[in-house]
Backbone:
């Protein structure tokens, strides 16, 4: 095939043979390619950088993108770089700014610049856990009502050590706090409902989010549940879901995460395991002009008391079970005089549960996976370090509160002062793609199956994704062509791959904007992590990403 030829052997006719490229365009593209090869042809990496930035556009057929990429790296070997960090841009990343300020203090006189010294910094985060995590908490403006006695204490009672011993905090309260980097007028949520794709996006300020969370928290307290009780959420991840999630945590209860796609038996299993005392759900889910029942599935699961949110209307469209409460009546349980009064969040011991998530259950009964009050800090730290999330960013990641990426999105955006972008509808079509454009998303998270759907329908055609600074991918193994296609939609911005686990609230292997990135590949252990290949006896044998 033409795209598997070396670049120097590609002719005008080869380019014209790509469906969608005219003879005139083929001649123009070949002329530009010849000019790039004349200047950079001896260096495949530099050749690709100039091709990706100065020749390829989202409008050109993907087959031509493939022709250029595979032709450029025809005989390069394994994992050629598809993106290189710019030295000046690297200094403006979260880690880059930290290193420019304190590089010599943290790493000694060997510090050069954020790119050259990145590996040294990663090793520093492992060997100097106390200092690293104190820095991260300062960068994210984390507020403890009682400061930890230390970062990590070795103790026989806690395998792997005890993190932040003695600390008390409320992670949801931290999401709503004012600090030097955030004001009440800051936009914290941008949303749109499926079907309203031509309407302006809806924006929510921090002040509006705080008021909504406080009102729901006060209303939850009227339900008569003991603090620490488990309260489930089974609904799409929209503004109400985010408000309810934060309200449950700020009020000192425990969120039980249930995906809205689950059948009644799967819902029932998770309610039973978590011993949930109440559940927030929705009457219907709207997708593609159709309504799919949700509340009825919750009833079939023999759920405890349900608070039922109407789907995009002011009144519920169905009759409620005895003892269940409509969203309207639930909110009216709080006196009007108290609705704008700040809710004083419950300060939790660091080991207290804030969220119960679950394994997938594909190989048996799902296993409960608790997040403590400290897990959100780990999730947000990955957002700060690997995903470079900060003030001014708009973060979108199609997901659900039933999976760890839901709470991770909330915490990594809000604890880093960024804006969450939530599309209430299917992420697989042009509606979501247009929302990414209109919301001016700067960091778009994906799972590869979604990218495959976009690629197969070309639903991003004609849209402007130039606001995206980088992508993040997790949840499945990605394919090289999927990643190449995705990067090409945003003028070859990098895809940061992350692999981790619900148990740790983040990643253990990832990419970085301070390192060259290859397609569908990792480039570093996560900050604070050491990775080893174990021998047959279970002992560490080979260190990954570090000199042996």
Residues:
């Amino acid at each position: 095939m033409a795209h598997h030829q070396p670049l120097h052997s590609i002719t005008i006719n080869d380019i014209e043979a790509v469906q969608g490229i005219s003879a005139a365009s083929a001649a123009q593209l070949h002329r530009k390619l010849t000019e790039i090869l004349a200047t950079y042809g001896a260096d495949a990496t530099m050749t690709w950088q100039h091709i990706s930035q100065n020749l390829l556009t989202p409008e050109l057929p993907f087959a031509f993108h493939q022709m250029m990429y595979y032709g450029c790296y025809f005989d390069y070997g394994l994992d050629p770089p598809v993106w290189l960090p710019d030295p000046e841009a690297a200094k403006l990343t979260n880690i880059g700014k930290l290193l420019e300020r304190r590089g010599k203090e943290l790493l000694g006189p060997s510090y050069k610049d954020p790119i050259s010294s990145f590996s040294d910094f990663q090793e520093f985060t492992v060997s100097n856990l106390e200092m690293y995590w104190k820095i991260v908490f300062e960068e994210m403006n984390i507020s403890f009502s009682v400061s930890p006695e230390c970062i990590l204490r070795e103790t026989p009672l806690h395998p792997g050590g005890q993190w932040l011993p003695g600390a008390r905090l409320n992670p949801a309260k931290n999401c709503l706090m004012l600090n030097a980097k955030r004001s009440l007028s800051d936009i914290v949520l941008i949303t749109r409902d499926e079907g309203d794709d031509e309407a302006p996006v809806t924006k929510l300020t921090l002040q509006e989010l705080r008021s909504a969370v406080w009102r729901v928290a006060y209303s939850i307290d009227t339900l008569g549940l003991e603090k620490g009780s488990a309260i489930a959420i089974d609904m799409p991840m929209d503004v109400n879901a985010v408000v309810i999630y934060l309200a449950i945590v700020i009020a000192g209860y425990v969120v039980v995460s249930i995906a809205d796609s689950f059948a009644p038996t799967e819902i029932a299993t998770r309610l039973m395991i978590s011993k949930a005392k109440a559940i927030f759900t929705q009457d219907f889910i709207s997708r593609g002009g159709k309504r799919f029942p949700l509340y009825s599935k919750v009833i079939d699961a023999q759920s405890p008391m349900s608070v039922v949110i109407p789907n995009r209307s002011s009144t519920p469209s169905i009759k409620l079970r005895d003892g269940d409460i409509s969203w309207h009546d639930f909110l009216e349980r709080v006196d009007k005089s108290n609705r704008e009064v700040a809710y004083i969040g419950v300060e939790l011991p660091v080991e207290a549960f804030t969220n119960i998530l679950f394994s997938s259950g594909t190989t048996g009964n799902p296993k409960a996976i608790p997040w403590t009050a400290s897990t959100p800090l780990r999730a947000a730290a990955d957002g700060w370090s690997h995903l470079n999330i900060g003030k001014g960013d708009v973060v979108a990641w199609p997901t659900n509160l039933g999976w760890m990426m839901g709470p991770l999105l909330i915490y990594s955006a809000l604890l880093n002062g960024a804006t969450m972008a939530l599309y209430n509808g299917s992420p697989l079509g042009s509606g979501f793609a247009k929302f990414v454009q209109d919301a001016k998303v700067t960091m778009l998270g994906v799972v590869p199956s979604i990218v495959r759907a976009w690629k197969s329908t070309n639903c991003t055609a004609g849209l402007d994704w130039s606001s995206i600074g980088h992508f993040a991918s997790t949840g499945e193994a990605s394919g090289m062509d999927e990643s190449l296609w995705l990067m090409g939609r945003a003028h070859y911005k990098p895809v940061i791959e992350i692999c981790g686990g619900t148990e740790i609230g983040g990643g253990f292997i990832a990419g970085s904007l301070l390192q060259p990135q290859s397609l569908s590949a990792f480039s570093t252990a996560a900050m604070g992590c050491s990775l080893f290949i174990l021998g047959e006896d279970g002992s560490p044998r080979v260190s990954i990403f570090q000199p042996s």
About this structure: Residues 23-40 form the longest helix (18 residues). The CA atoms of residues 8 and 313 lie 60 Å apart. The longest strand covers residues 187-193. The chain has three domains: 7-77, 87-160, 168-525.
